[in-house]
Prior knowledge:
By secondary structure, this protein is of the alpha+beta class. It has a single domain (2-85), classed as Alpha-Beta Plaits. It has helices spanning 13-33, 58-67, 69-77, and strands spanning 2-10, 38-45, 48-55, 79-87. β2 and β3 (48-55) form a beta hairpin. It is globular and about 40 Å long.
Amino acid sequence: MYCRVVHVKAVSEIQLKMITSYIDSTMMPRNLAAGQISGEVFEKSPTEIFTVSKFSDKETANKIMGLMKDEIREIAKGCKMSLLEGPRIIQGKSSLE
Length: 97
């Protein structure tokens, strides 16, 4: 399992709504169809989100990143983005699941 977390800080609430709408309608469905295991978007503030994407391995994560490189560059022009990624080393499971 390989995980990628992207933090996005937009300059306005409207800009963030446009970004999240694009992620929801275009990026997420395409990435899932291309092999991404799961994707979630969390709101940190009215102008900040972070996404958590899971992949089977780093190669798949890099392949999917290649699909959206131009889009990421375009989004990054108007906001701040940071990226954390790496392989899972520990998995905990709740007995409630």
